């Protein structure tokens, strides 16, 4: 059977695109197939992101903060986000919202199985699932089937363990989150704590590292326990939820499509929409979904070349990773210098690829010029 669109992968990227399509009356009747190995029934992750105004998923924002803290053992800086809010969405709320909405459309079908291969021809695309072939006008792929080679020479891993805890007495200010606390030990690479209170007695505490290799499972737990006791003075608490994740922060170049007339469009991390220098993904997925839907509404190919702005920010990201991977500077040094010397409200748009060239230059001036210049030139000529 041929479909209008096949979405290969029902994670954040796939379901965001599905929801965006179904919210457009001119597209909501299209025959759509969503493929994945498993159904999304667990609260397996949390997404946090910057946003200026209410977005498509505002009704399921679990909490948001207008004030954040950046901290090292030498200084602590609290700042107001001004035009942005920092928002949290829980995975289970996201899955339930999109899947419940999709049930209203008989033209939307879900099939669960092993996605084995993807193929592309001039006027159709095909995917093999458990030896069965499905075709469509376009396939939107968020699986790892078309990923570039990722190894220690071009990649750091952002790995983290997070605990949602509940204390027996008020311990938090729910209006202020800690974006990065670099006061913890740095022996395993760039390491920081992330504290996002959602009430006076509840918070997400996350231990995050940028390094080539994962730690032993117990090391994450030990670090969180130590931080809770020694830094937050919290000893009595209940762990309500835990999550563990690994995000590749890579200089490898992800193809958004195979050719100019491609019928296979890569989305999410597979399309390069995870910001390589920070791991942030959610807001970039939403922007990409909007762009795809806009093209489909105009009955145009959703294939989109990288803009000049895209290329510039990708170059910034690869340059920073080159510095970190080559160990010319540490993550703590880089982020501490940026947040220490600048008003953090200038850095937030930069992290979202929304900053102006003037701001970019101001940020660059805070960093070791020759170290970054050498890394930038190397990445400018990398394939």
Tell me which CATH architecture of the largest domain applies here: 3-Layer(bba) Sandwich
How many beta-strand runs?
17
Mean pLDDT value: 93
Major sheet summary line:
7 strands, mixed
- Report the radius of gyration as a whole number of Å: 21 Å
Q: How much of the polypeptide forms β-strand, as a percent range?
A: 25-35%
Number of domains: 3
The CATH first-level class of the largest domain comes to Alpha Beta
- Which segments are poorly predicted (pLDDT under 50) over 5 or more consecutive residues? none
Order of helices and strands: EHEEEEEEHEEEEEEEEHEEHHHHHH
Q: What is the CATH superfamily label of the largest domain?
A: FAD/NAD(P)-binding domain
Oligomer designation: single chain
- Binned, the helix content reads 25-40%
Number of helices: 9
The third-level CATH topology of the largest domain is: FAD/NAD(P)-binding domain
Task: Tell me, briefly, the overall form.
Answer: globular
- What is the CA-CA span between the terminal residues? 39 Å
Structural class: alpha/beta
What does this structure look like?
α1 runs parallel beside α2. About 40% of the residues are buried. The strands form 3 sheets. Strands 1, 2, 8, 9, 10, 11 and 17 form a 7-stranded mixed sheet that branches. Strands 6-5-13-14-15-12-16 form a 7-stranded mixed sheet, sandwiched between helices. Helices cover about 30% and strands about 30% of the residues. It folds into 3 domains: about 180 residues, FAD/NAD(P)-binding domain, CATH 3.50.50; about 100 residues, 2-Layer Sandwich (D-Amino Acid Oxidase, Chain A, domain 2), CATH 3.30.9; about 70 residues. It contains 9 helices and 17 strands. By secondary structure, it is α/β, with parallel strands linked by helices.
């Amino acid at each position: 059977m041929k479909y209008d669109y096949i979405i290969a992968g029902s994670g954040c990227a796939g379901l965001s695109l599905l929801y965006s399509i179904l919210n457009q009356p001119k597209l909501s009747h299209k025959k759509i197939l969503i493929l994945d190995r498993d159904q999304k029934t667990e609260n397996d992750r949390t997404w946090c992101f910057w946003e200026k105004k209410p977005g498509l998923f505002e009704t399921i924002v679990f909490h948001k903060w207008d004030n954040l803290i950046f901290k090292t053992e030498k200084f602590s800086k609290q700042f107001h986000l001004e035009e942005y809010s920092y928002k949290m969405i829980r995975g289970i709320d996201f899955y339930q919202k999109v899947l419940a909405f999709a049930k209203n459309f008989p033209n939307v079908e879900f099939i669960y199985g092993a996605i084995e291969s993807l193929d592309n021809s001039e006027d159709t695309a095909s995917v093999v699932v458990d030896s069965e072939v499905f075709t469509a006008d376009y396939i939107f792929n968020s699986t790892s089937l078309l990923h570039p080679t990722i190894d220690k020479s071009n990649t750091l891993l952002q790995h983290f363990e997070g605990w949602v805890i509940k204390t027996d007495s008020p311990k938090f200010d729910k209006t202020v989150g800690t974006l990065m606390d670099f006061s913890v030990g740095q022996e395993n690479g760039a390491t920081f704590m992330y504290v996002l209170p959602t009430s006076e007695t509840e918070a997400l505490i996350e231990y995050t590292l940028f390094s080539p290799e994962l730690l032993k499972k117990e090391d994450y737990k030990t670090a969180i326990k130590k931080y809770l006791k020694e830094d937050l003075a919290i000893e009595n608490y209940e762990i309500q939820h835990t999550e563990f994740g690994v995000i590749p922060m890579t200089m490898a170049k992800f193809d958004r499509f195979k050719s100019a007339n491609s019928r296979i469009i890569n989305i999410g991390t597979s399309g390069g929409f995870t910001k390589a220098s920070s791991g942030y993904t959610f807001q970039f997925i939403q922007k990409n979904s909007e762009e795809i839907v806009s093209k489909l509404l105009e009955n145009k190919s959703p294939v989109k070349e990288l803009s000049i702005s895209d290329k510039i920010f990708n170059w910034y990201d690869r340059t920073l990773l080159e510095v970190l991977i080559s160990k010319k500077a540490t993550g703590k040094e880089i982020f501490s210098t940026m947040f220490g010397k600048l008003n953090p409200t200038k850095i937030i748009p930069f992290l979202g690829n929304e900053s102006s060239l003037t701001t970019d230059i101001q940020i660059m001036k805070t960093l070791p010029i020759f170290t970054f210049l050498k890394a930038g030139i190397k990445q400018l000529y990398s394939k």
